[in-house]
Amino acid sequence: MTQHMAGTVRLEAQRNVIHFCGPINPITVHSIKGTMLQALNSHKSNPAIAPVSDFYFVFCSEGGDVNSGISLFNFLRAVPVPLIMHNFGCVDSIAILVYMAADTRYVTDNGRFFFHGFTSTFIQPIAAFSSHDFSIAERSCSVMNHMETYRKCIVERIDNSKSVIDFEAAFREGCVVGSSEAIANGIAHKIVSPDNFISENDVHLGVTP
C-alpha cells in the first residue's frame, strides 16, 4: 500500500516474514543476519522497496551451536524494528534462547520446547587424562558458563512470570514444555494457529540451512 504526499509516493512499511527450519550454527546465523540486514537496507538503497515494519519469524529449530545461538540472540535484541517469533513445531536447546529474543512470542497448539544440558566435544581424542586435565577443566568451565548465560537470559525474558521451570533439573534430566505450559511459564505469549497464516500482503523470505 502507498500514500501520496505532496506529489510524492510514500511506501508504507511492510512486514517481513522469515521462514527458518534448521540448526543453529555459524552458517545459518550468518544467513539469518544477512537476510535481515539486506531487508533493512533495501529501502535505503532503493526507495521503490517498502521499508520493514517488523520481522515475523516462522521458526523451528532443533538447536545447535551454543556460541552461535548467543550471538544471534544478541543480534536480534539489537534489531531496530519489532520482532515476533512463532514456534511452528519445535524449538529446542539453544534455539530457545534465539526464540526468547523476541518481545512477542507465539506457538502453535502442537508446538513444544525442549530444555536440556549442554555438551562439549574434543576434536582430538584424549590419550591420557594426566596430560590433558587442564584442557578438560577449561572445557568444563566454558560449558558451565554457557549454561548460566542461557539460564540468566531466558529468566530475564520471561516477563516477570512466576515460572516453575526447574532449570537445574532441566539441564540434568531434560524437560519438554508444551504450548499451554509454555504460556503459563512466560516462555510464549499466545497460541496462534497456522491456519490461513501466510498473507500475500507480507514479504516472505526463506533462510536455507
Notes on the protein architecture:
- By secondary structure, the protein is an alpha/beta fold.
- The chain has one domain (2-207): 2-enoyl-CoA Hydratase, Chain A, domain 1 (Alpha-Beta Complex), CATH 3.90.226.10.
- Helices cover 36% and strands 26% of the residues.
- The protein is built from six helices and ten strands; from the N terminus they run E-E-E-H-E-H-E-H-E-E-H-H-E-H-E-E.
- The protein has helices at 26-45, 66-78, 94-99, 133-156, 167-173, 179-184; strands at residues 2-5, 8-11, 14-21, 52-61, 83-92, 104-107, 112-115, 175-178, 190-191, 203-207.
- The strands form two sheets. Strands 3, 4, 5, 6, 7, 8, 9 and 10 form an eight-stranded mixed β-sheet that branches.
- A hairpin with a 2-residue loop joins strand 1 (2-5) and strand 2 (8-11).
- The chain is globular and about 60 Å long.
- The two termini are 32 Å apart.
- The model has no long low-confidence stretch (mean pLDDT 85).
Layout of helices and strands:
Elements: E1 2-5, E2 8-11, E3 14-21, H1 26-45, E4 52-61, H2 66-78, E5 83-92, H3 94-99, E6 104-107, E7 112-115, H4 133-156, H5 167-173, E8 175-178, H6 179-184, E9 190-191, E10 203-207
Parallel strand pairs: 3-4, 3-10, 4-5, 5-6, 5-7, 6-9
Antiparallel strand pairs: 1-2, 7-8
